[in-house]
Description:
Blueprint: H1 2-19, H2 77-90, H3 115-123, H4 125-131, H5 133-141, H6 154-165
Helix pairs in contact: 2-6, 3-4, 3-6, 4-5
Amino acid sequence: xxxxxxxxxxxxxxxxxxxxxxxxxxxxxxxxxxxxxxxxxxxxxxxxxxxxxxxxxxxxxxxxxxxxxxxxxxxxxxxxxxxxxxxxxxxxxxxxxxxxxxxxxxxxxxxxxxxxxxxxxxxxxxxxxxxxxxxxxxxxxxxxxxxxxxxxxxxxxxxxxxxxxxx
Length: 167
């Protein structure tokens, strides 16, 4: 009788051990003419915040010596021509007119930034990145590619700004 109980006990333990803890792996066979099933993980954005390059901050004048810029209703073509040439010479290594590149596209910049902010960024990008929230966010968005200080004069920065008005 004891042997029967021992055998029954061992069989029960053996069955419990063999049933527990295993994970079944299903293999899906691909049939000819069918696409394999692929699970797609949809990642949620880390934040709802608008990227700095698309953010509208027209009330922010930035940090620097430019406190106020008056824009005439008419565009000064002589300034546009000078600004286009300066931009072509000094800025196109990092900025493309119609697309994102190493830096943001200047197209439509005056719909997102104040003239003062733009000129302050052109004249002293290091100060802007050090003290302006939007400039800091742009640096992060563009993978730490800091804007080079081209040592522009205020007149050159104003010419570039006038050129940006035509984009």
